[in-house]
Amino acid sequence: MEAQFFRFLKIVGVGFKARAESEGRLLFLKLGYSHEVELSVPPAVRVFCFKPNVICCTGIDKQRVHQFAAAVRSCKPPEVYKGKGIMYVDEVIKKKQGKKSK
């Protein structure tokens, strides 16, 4: 059996959701924009959504799996003030301090 490569992405934010359709060929993301973001998955990659906020990219080509995961993440990269956005599960976001009110 070939080695399978995985990349898990976590979506953080109120109302942010993902769903996979047509056997993991299409990925729909609700990211607070006025429209749904639709991504077509490359042939060597499969996409699963375990929960509405966890995406799993899997395949036998590590480079393609990680490339697609990076493309998904770039739709809404993690934000440093509230920590909202799409991030890798093992990623740590350093939060910045907001401005202080007097």
From TrEMBL:
Keyword Ribosomal protein: yes
Residues in coiled coil: none
Xref: Pfam families: Ribosomal_L6 (PF00347)
Organism: Deinandra increscens subsp. villosa
UniProt entry keywords in alphabetical sequence: Ribonucleoprotein, Ribosomal protein
Alphabetized InterPro entries for the sequence: Ribosomal_uL6-like, Ribosomal_uL6-like_a/b-dom_sf, Ribosomal_uL6_a/b-dom, Ribosomal_uL6_bac-type, Ribosomal_uL6_CS
GO MF annotation list: rRNA binding; structural constituent of ribosome
Gene Ontology cellular component annotations, sorted alphabetically: ribonucleoprotein complex; ribosome
Lineage: Eukaryota, Viridiplantae, Streptophyta, Embryophyta, Tracheophyta
Descriptive protein name: Large ribosomal subunit protein uL6 alpha-beta domain-containing protein
GO biological process: translation
Ranges of residues in domain Large ribosomal subunit protein uL6 alpha-beta: 14-88
Family statement: Belongs to the universal ribosomal protein uL6 family.
